[in-house]
Amino acid sequence: MIADVLTDAGTRMDRAVEAAKDDFATVRTGRANPQLFQRIMVDYYGSPTPLAQLASLNNPEARTLVINPYDKSALKAIEQAIRDAPNLGANPTNDGTIVRVTMPELTEERRKEFVKLVRAKAEDAKVHVRGIRRKAKDDLDALKSDIGEDELGRAEKELDALTRAHVDQIDEALKRKEAELLEV
Questions:
Q1: Residue 38 has what pLDDT?
Q2: Where is the Ribosome recycling factor domain (predicted)?
Q3: Which residue has the higher pLDDT, 106 or 101?
Q4: What SS3 state is found at 67?
């Protein structure tokens, strides 16, 4: 029973770390990256649709992204969705067949804003991991009558180690992203 609780908590913490890393990827650095556009929702015939389902994304140059829609009638909607996306600062151009997005150079001030944003996302992920820990601790406490105090103590130490390992993974991903953002 203890192993089930710890395994479930570990799996959920792994997913939280992966979600944090995916979230970090949506914050732009100096380069154009198709992952920046993963969360952009396009109003396609009245329903919000992820951009990746409407078009192919190519990265021909370091700061340029070419979006080739599968349905050419969605060009205007894609262009508008990119223009309205927060924290991108991109200005797309439409030539009738593709949308070309050139990412502007990041200023020092903008880089620092992005570092703050990434730190906030990392803190949210850590709070989520600690929430998972709290739930697992409650589940372990519910098993207290079935298992002994010693087993419960060992399980809690194991849970704390698991939590610490996942928080460290988030911190490591944060350090990498900060270095990437501050690199000129």
A1: 78
A2: 21-182
A3: 101
A4: strand
